[in-house]
Amino acid sequence: MTAQISVAEQGHRCPECGADVPVESRFVTWCDACDWNVDPGAPAPDPRRIEALRRRLAQRYGERLFADLGPRPGRDVAGVLACALALVVHGVTAALAVTGLLLVVLGWGMGVLPVVGAVLLAIAVALRPRFGVLPDDTPVLRRPDAPRLFELVDEVAAVAGTAGVDTVVIAADANAAVSTYGVRHRRMLRIGLGLWEILTPPQRVALIGHELGHFAHGDTRRGAVVGRALDSLALWLYFLTPDSETDLMQRVTHWMMAVPRWAVLGLLHLLDQLTLRATQRAEYLADETAARAGSSVAAAELLDRLLLVPSVTSALHRESVVAHSRGGAAARREAEQRLWERLAARIESVPEREYKRLRRVSTLRGHCADSTHPPTHLRRRRVSEGTQWQAAVRCDEERAGAIAAELTAARDHMAHVVIRDAAADQ
Ligand SMILES: [Zn+2]
Ligand SMILES: [Zn+2]
Question: How far apart are the CA of 256 and the centre of ligand 1, in A?
Answer without folding.
Answer: 54
